Amino acid sequence: MLLRTQTALAAAFCGTFLLPAVLHLVVKPASGEFWLDRAGSLTGWIALALATIAACWLNWRRTVYQPIVAFFLVAIVAMVALTSLRWDTGDWLAYHTLLVGLTAAAWLLPIVTLAANRLLASAGDSTSPIIWSAASARVFGLAAVALGLRGLDGDPAAPWWTIGALAAISLRNVWIAWHEGGRGSMWIAAVLTNLAVCIWWIDQGHRLTATSGRGELVEFLWINAIAAAVMAVISAWVEHRTLECAVKSRWIALHRFVAWAIVVAFLITTAGRLVGDLSGNFIEVSTALGWAAWCAAVVAAVACWWDPRSRWPVACIYTVGLAAVGMYLDGLDFRPPMFEWALAMALAAYSLVTSLLWSRRSEIGSVFARLRVPAASQGESGHAWLVAVNGMSAVAVLALVAWIEIGMPELRHRMIAAYAVGAEALAIGLLARGAVRSPLQYAALVFGVLFAVAVGWAWLPPDMPAPWLHRIVAAIVALAATMVVYGLGLVKLFRRENDWTLAAQLLVPLLAVIAAVLLIAVLGIEVMAFAHEQPVPITWPALLAVAIALVGLAVAALAAALVPGRDPLGLSERGRTAYVYAAEALFALTFLHIRVTMPWLFSGWFLRFWPLVVMVIAFVGVGLGEFFQRRRQKVLSDPLTTTGALLPLLPALGFWVTSSEVHYSLLLLTIGVLYAAVSALRKSFWFAVLAALAANGSLWYLLHERAGLSIAEHPQLWLIPPALCVLVAGYLNRARLSAEQSAALRYGSAIVIYASSTADIFINGVADAPWLPAVLAGLAILGVFAGILLRVRAFLYLGVTFLVVAIMTVIWYAAIEQERTWILWVAGIVTGVLIIALFGVFEKRRDDVLRVVDRLKQWEA
């Protein structure tokens, strides 16, 4: 204990004269005071050497107390520095010597300890004579760093001694991390390296470029990014070698943090420069330095791939590439709208390239395997975020392209911008090769439609009349073209059905609905202009495009109804008639479109005889329906017949809206003929009813137009034809009616016929119309004969009754109106004779008369 106390006293006395001298040397390195020179004299060396020898001899083969070792090491360094004062001429030689000594001491402790331990281990001795303290080594390093930073103020050789000290301590920490696998040492090394680079850049490096203001700050960030990237590569290399030690560390891996930090810094600086360009405040920077920093960022991101615990290496590389896109745009120095145009092009190209690389991930993965990249770092789990990011990029490109198509005046720029949407469609299609297929396939096909729309819009200059009307027309044409391609073209291209063809066919109905809505919008605009007697603001190409689109959609609907395997909805035979109805509606809309946009085509012969034209079309439709019915093609026959039957309603109702030279009676008669033909072909009772109504309506309109033939003057002309129609209908449908219904129908119809004729006599009088009683008598006689031939009691009884009425009318007129009363006497005598004769016949041939009565009872009521 006494010897140890004496040794400690010796060390304390050495520190007594060394510590003030060292502190004075640090505070005033350029002063050459006498006592400093004496502190490093031979006497001082002897005192320090004796104390050191005593301490080593006393602790031989024993563990040395670590502060004592650190003290003597610092003392030796201080003595060397103080000794060098003899040759210091004001150039800070002693200070530099102290700095080098502390740096060497910081290196010496771990190296000597590692070498000693290895020698003892090879000699079979597991007891280490020296256990150096990591804390002591860090104190030496910290002292060297502090001393180096002190030299920035007044050192004639600044900043190189400071930079050298920082670099040496940084390398020392890298060496420690290499042997121990500690991430903390790498972080210290990275901080010291960036500090050294910052000092160099502030003092010397900024002179390499001619930038100023905010550009200097951007370049300062870039130079730090380069230095950090170098340390990130070293960190990845060290961690790959000392994987097990790094796993136990509580520090985050330096290369992972640095990679993302550089990416974020690049995004911030690039965004700031782009905003400055747009606002006119350009930030001048060195392009070469910027791309050098970007290359360093790429190297740092790639270095993370060799780390199996890196979770987002692909995302980091993707973001670095996005920063390159921003740097490229910044280098163009474009102003709006060229900036938006270039941005759309760059984003579309980048999405296409990244999607292509992702689609080839298997081949790229095999290359990585040969480079010994861990499989976990190859980014297989990054598919979801890549789809999301490229999807947002696609939406952004779509918005930019829409803005460009609407406002950019140059055709070539608009056309090139449209292809950006096509590139996005291809990019999304390439992404559909992963786990998520169907949604991406649909999205790619939708962007294909939008690409066609963009190409159509590219041809429309912003200053054209009615621009939105023409843009809707262009969208309709694009939808029609893509429907044909998706519905038929993809199958021809792939020559087989697969996921893409099925997705395309399922998308066709939605496109058809959208096209139909847009067509209705266009036709609505045209009809509104036509109704206000204004010219439709549409050019000839757009007019023809709408007509062709309508016809094309109609043909596509017919193909879906008739061609096997082309029905996108898989409907039954009856359900496919909806396609035929849709085709007919589209043809009708085509006619409407031509009618309102080219009214001069309908101002002559067509306008005068348009009801007959419509009826000709109706007859053709019914004829074609019957033709296809006989060929057993119900998909066509039913819609054509139904449409042909309903089409006459158009001229029948439109006659009262639009004038023509066709007589309404002729039109109704033609409609009646059509319905009668349909009734005969289809054996339809209701079409027969419609035919009867149309024919009677034709007669009634003709009577209405003639003076003196109104229903109040000649009711038999108005009521006898429909009554006869009812009789005929009852006869044709007698099997469907009961006996009571048939009897009521016959009595009612016959009474209407006879009563209307009788009313005609009373309205007009026998004096003015002597032929009216003869008409009634003729109708009665025809009724009697019809009753006898058809064995119908109603016709016989009513015919005999109204025959008597007709005869009595004539007798009454002759006797009363003509004042020839003898006719009454003659009529009475004849009547009496006939009654007596009837009773005579009944008495003489009673059995025959009763048999006749019994036969009458067997007739139909």
Descriptive overview:
The protein has 861 residues and is mainly alpha-helical. The protein has helices at 2-27, 34-39, 42-58, 66-83, 93-122, 134-150, 160-180, 183-203, 214-241, 243-247, 254-279, 287-303, 313-332, 338-359, 361-370, 383-407, 411-431, 438-458, 467-494, 499-531, 540-562, 577-597, 605-630, 634-646, 649-654, 664-682, 685-705, 715-732, 739-764, 771-790, 793-817, 822-844, 846-858. α19 (467-494) runs antiparallel to α20 (499-531) and α22 packs across α24. The protein starts with a helix and ends with a helix. 36% of the residues are buried. Mean pLDDT is 75; it is low at 128-132 and 377-381.
Please describe the topology of this protein.
Elements: H1 2-27, H2 34-39, H3 42-58, H4 66-83, H5 93-122, H6 134-150, H7 160-180, H8 183-203, H9 214-241, H10 243-247, H11 254-279, H12 287-303, H13 313-332, H14 338-359, H15 361-370, H16 383-407, H17 411-431, H18 438-458, H19 467-494, H20 499-531, H21 540-562, H22 577-597, H23 605-630, H24 634-646, H25 649-654, H26 664-682, H27 685-705, H28 715-732, H29 739-764, H30 771-790, H31 793-817, H32 822-844, H33 846-858
Distance between the termini: 153 Å
SS-based class: mainly alpha
- Percentage of residues in strands: under 5%
Number of helical segments with 4 or more residues: 33
Using the alpha-carbon principal axes, give the shape. rod-shaped
The proportion of residues forming helix, as a percent range, comes to over 70%
Low-pLDDT stretches:
128-132, 377-381
Write down the overall mean pLDDT. 75
Report the strand count: 0
Main pleated sheet: none
- Gyration radius, in Å: 55 Å
